[in-house]
Amino acid sequence: MDLVTNTTQPLSILYQDTELVAINKPHGLLVHRSMIASDASEFAVQLLRDQLGQRVYPVHRLDRKTAGVLLFALSESMNAIMQQQFMEGAVQKTYLAIVRGYTPDELTIDYPLCKDDGNGAVGVLQEAVTHLKTLRQTEIPVAFGKHPTSRYSLVELTPTTGRMHQLRRHMAHILHPIIGDRPHGCNKQNKLFKEHFEMNTMLLHAQRIEFTHPVTQETTTIAAPFQAEFRRMLGVLFGVGDLK
């Protein structure tokens, strides 16, 4: 089972004006109702609607397992404008992930992905590009397989396309899967984290988005602090509780 947020607490609002609102989505919370997640009973759309007392429109998606910045419009017209910005690649998205192994200092992953409808690939290849930058590396005294230690990297990921599970699939493709990812990740690593650290969360965090506000025409940057489990693993693996 994935870690599911405790929704007895209000959603954390990162940004709000008369047109837009952004939350720090917890790990395990679906954006909206989905046929592929029939076990879920709470959704970000409904929780935020009830919290604000008005209708909200998610202008992009985050995986259920991914935490971080999630942006909503407060009207249908603003929703259409912001969705267009995302579709045109006018919104810069930055993620952080903890992955297996030592990654290169920098890398551009240009690897097309089959279109995915949430139930598996459906055959059409789509362009997919992700830029990777390694922020930290660590080696910890926990045996893995034939190795007496385990190595991990903290990476910054900047996608220039928005394919379903793009970051997860790209990191698996270069053999540095995101810790806690299923089904694209490494089941043995996921088991190690569950047994040694009682950690069952996917360590992918939507850290920041940047876009031109349609009304003010100003550059708007919204950043999300780490959720508790991501911050805990930063401490366990890298000896830090946050990044400066």
Automatic annotation (TrEMBL):
Keyword Isomerase in the entry? The reply is yes
Tell me which residues make up the Pseudouridine synthase RsuA/RluA-like domain. Answer: 20-173
Q: Does the record bear Transferase in its keywords?
A: no
Enzyme Commission number(s) of this protein = 5.4.99.26
Cross-referenced SUPFAM superfamilies: Pseudouridine synthase
Alphabetical keyword list: Isomerase, tRNA processing
Question: Which reactions are catalysed by this chain?
Answer: uridine(65) in tRNA = pseudouridine(65) in tRNA
Q: Which protein, by its recorded name, is this?
A: tRNA pseudouridine synthase C
